[in-house]
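Comment thread on ticket #2218

A.B. wrote:
> Attaching the input chain for the structure job we discussed in standup.
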Amino acid sequence: MNILVAYKKNFEGVHDEGLMSLKAILQRLASPAHHVDYKPREHVRRADFIARDLVIVFGGDGTLTSLSHNIDAATPVMGVNSHPRTDDPEGSYGFYMDSSMATFEEDFQNAVAGKAIVNEVPRLQAIIDTTSGNRFTTDPAMNDLLIANTHQYAPSKYHLRRGAQQTHQQSSGLLFSTWFGQGAWLRNAMSDQEFEQIKGKASVKRGTHHYFVYARDLSPEQRTNAWAWMDWTEEETTITSDMHRGYVVPDGWDEVHFNRGATITVNAEAPTLTLLTFRTTIEAKLMAAFD
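C.D. wrote:
> Ran it. Output below, let me know if you need it in another format.
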């Protein structure tokens, strides 16, 4: 197997000790036919993920989401929580990180043996059409996409369209969330009452290409259009910018800028991420968190 270990590097003892233990386990378990590379998150490039049979991400959810933009649908990913909250209240919850150093040895053996649970995690993408006729697609997002004015003190103005429905809005930006990402930024962006209305909505086909759209700080007058305020959908959402300059931010990482008149189409048709878990599915884990 050709294996890449990408890890969080912040010079904290708990992460360094965990990484040393992980390396020792891999040296002991990996056969001579296994090739293992180790790279800190800051030094990883897209080319590092090509032709890998397994990617092991050592860190927290932020480490995984930042690296996932480089990983295609054919590459299985194993998340190892380097600082679990179960061991330390200041640690990482690690929703996507089903493994830890307490379980890593057994989990790695199951991954190599093909005995892991395979989760196909849907991802969001934004396709930007500029006024000069160029088109490009943002990196895929596991959790969320933000579309907003680059000047956060200025309102985000845009025309919004989905199917036959269209409207003009002025908000502090549009936040799009995947089904599995609804417990991340979306949970904190919405009020408790709003979130109770949408979490784990029974009518949504879980794990499919449904995604959530939320217009932040929308005026009460504009909230009459529920489809354009907060709604689950599997249709494309199209935004035509009425801002001098805006940006799309996938998972809180790289910003992609656009100018007034640009059209941004959002959907959940990006390549999925193949995420391995070992005790339960990601869907079951999400629903348990809502109980």
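A.B. wrote:
> Thanks. Noting for the ticket: The chain has a mean pLDDT of 92.
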